[in-house]
Design a protein that fits this description.
This protein has about 270 residues and is an alpha/beta fold. The chain contains 10 helices and 12 strands. The chain has 2 domains: about 120 residues, Rossmann fold; about 140 residues, NAD(P)-binding Rossmann-like Domain (Rossmann fold), CATH 3.40.50.720. Bound molecules: NADPH dihydro-nicotinamide-adenine-dinucleotide phosphate (NDP).
């Protein structure tokens, strides 16, 4: 019988996940379907359970349900536990397992697709919401020299620092608001705020970009105000979050199917190349 998977969110019609997973399934000869399911704001758990009853094997979870998915799961991976957010659900007779592949997707995009190694680098992570939280452990696992967290609400960045500093290893960590960044330089600046969604850029001081630095926006599909500002401020390279999206999907696919799909053909297709 064909195995069923889906992405669940609200809204979800815009999701590229059905197309990405259809290409993965074709490339790896997996007998599966993947659909988009809209859940009402107060109906996440019921929608998941209905999908399980209908034979569903797994789901991706997107806005605004990642935290609820974490609570719904019977068991969670350590990275999902740390992120307090789940973007991948795996259904089995033993129950619902939750994982989070967003951070692995970001690191895979940076290191494999963009050839940007993180060991020894100075990283600035902007934002302290679910996306920032989800990438903390995988970023620290790459052993950067320093990780600075900056957020509009500075206390939320400090809270994130307090939670993750036990995992710092040899990495120097600090946290605060945007204004405290004046006079500092970074090799990688990651925008994990939602500012790009309203065509805004976080109000950053000038001079942040070290020679050879990369500016990375998790939002994808266009050059965002953050990326435009980074270009004028001297970032050597710019990247959007499309590669992260495809790589996190590949990690989910691997968790479900035990097969690692090639990501380059999908990325090229999405970029229209
Ligand atoms: P959350 O709502 O959890 O967090 C939003 C964050 O953005 C907060 O830190 C908030 O600051 C900050 N923020 C919002 N508006 C502004 C603004 N105008 N200026 C400065 N900071 C602002 O969202 P998520 O963390 O879940 O998502 C963040 C972004 O990452 C989204 O744009 C999402 O699309 C993207 N994303 C991309 C993925 C990919 O695969 N490419 C995967 C996951 C997320 P404050 O605390 O002060 O409110």
């Amino acid at each position: 019988m064909t195995d069923r998977y889906a992405v669940i969110g609200n809204p979800v019609a815009h999701s590229k996940s059905p197309m990405i997973h259809a290409v993965f399934a074709g490339l790896t000869l997996q007998d599966m379907t993947y659909e988009a399911i809209l859940a009402p704001p107060d109906g996440f758990a019921a929608t998941v359970r209905a999908f399980i009853s209908a034979g569903g094997r797994g789901m991706n979870v997107t806005v605004p349900f990642k935290r609820e998915a974490c609570a719904l799961a019977d068991t969670r991976s350590p990275r999902a536990e740390a992120a307090k957010a789940v973007n991948t659900l795996i259904f089995s007779p033993a129950g619902i397992h939750g994982d989070n592949t967003d951070g692995l997707g970001l690191v895979a995009d940076l290191t494999r697709n963009l050839g940007f190694q993180l060991a020894g680098k100075r990283i600035l992570l902007l934002g302290a919401g679910g996306a920032a939280r989800g990438v903390m452990l995988p970023l620290l696992a790459e052993r950067p020299a320093a990780l600075t967290l900056a957020n509009r609400t500075a206390d939320k960045a400090r809270q994130l620092l307090a939670e993750f500093s036990p995992h710092a290893g040899g990495c120097t960590m600090d946290a605060g608001g945007f204004e405290g960044l004046a006079g500092r330089q970074f090799d990688l600046v990651i925008n994990a705020t939602a500012a790009s969604l309203t065509d805004e850029a976080p109000p950053l001081p000038g001079g942040l970009y070290a020679p050879g630095s990369l500016a990375y926006d998790m939002v994808y599909g266009r050059e965002t105000p953050f990326l435009t500002a980074a270009r004028t401020q001297g970032a050597a390279r710019l990247a959007d979050g499309l590669g992260m999206l495809v790589e996190q999907a590949a990690e989910s696919f691997f968790l479900w199917r035990g097969v690692r799909p090639p990501t380059a053909p999908v990325l090229a297709q999405l970029r229209g190349k």
